[in-house]
Design brief:
Length: 210
């Protein structure tokens, strides 16, 4: 096997980190929402409300956001076939999730600091696929131009919907959950695509020892 190819292989643990991200995120907002009780409306209230100071399940949602961010950072480290700008952006989005968790919104309402940090995370996790594009003609399907552009476009539209609902005070919770879910599951799809690509291209028989 050529050393250059081996250095670009996705390790098995990237599947674990990328697969854990959406599970932890959803479990966090479900459990924290149940702890908040009937006063919390998931359709109109954001995830940040669940992690706000004094919220009954704040520790649950905060922990989920920290784990989510660490998962994205680990996945970015292991996603070696992706272009470096995309990996750095994904890792930056993960770091932003951790920082957002460490600076929760106050119980009295919104916070410019918290909102700005969350916006940075949204942007980074929306644009990383297009920056991860691999021009190599033999790249995994998820790292080719079309899928990368489509992923960023879909998440970008979701973010615009979130901003629209924010202005009209409508289904803000629904829009945010959709966007964050898409952003959390996207790295998993890319990792699965890369692992499948590796398996299909792996040499078989005696040559596999070369």
């Amino acid at each position: 096997m050529i050393y250059g190819d081996s250095m670009r292989r996705v390790p098995w643990w990237a599947l674990l980190s990328s697969g854990l991200a959406p599970v932890v995120l959803i479990a966090g907002w479900v459990v924290a929402g149940l702890m908040a009780g009937s006063s919390y409306d998931p359709a109109t209230k954001t995830i940040s409300v669940l992690a706000a100071d004094g919220a009954p399940g704040a520790w649950v949602m905060t922990g989920a956001l920290v784990v989510l961010g660490l998962c994205h950072m680990a996945t970015a480290w292991g996603l070696r076939p992706a272009a470096l700008p995309g990996r750095l952006t994904l890792g930056g989005g993960g770091a932003a999730a951790v920082v957002v968790a460490l600076f929760p919104a106050p119980s009295s309402g919104g916070s410019l600091q918290h909102g700005s940090l969350a916006a940075v995370g949204f942007v980074l996790l929306a644009v990383w696929p297009v920056l991860a594009y691999d021009p190599n003609g033999t790249a995994a399907w998820a790292l080719r131009r079309g899928p990368c552009l489509a992923a960023t476009a879909v998440m970008g539209v979701g973010a615009l919907w979130f901003l629209f609902e924010l202005q009209r005070h409508g289904a803000l919770g629904v829009a945010e959950r959709l966007v964050t879910f898409l952003q959390s599951v996207c790295p998993l799809l890319v990792v699965v695509s890369c692992l499948r690509h590796q398996r299909l291209r792996s040499p078989v028989g005696p040559r596999s020892r070369v």
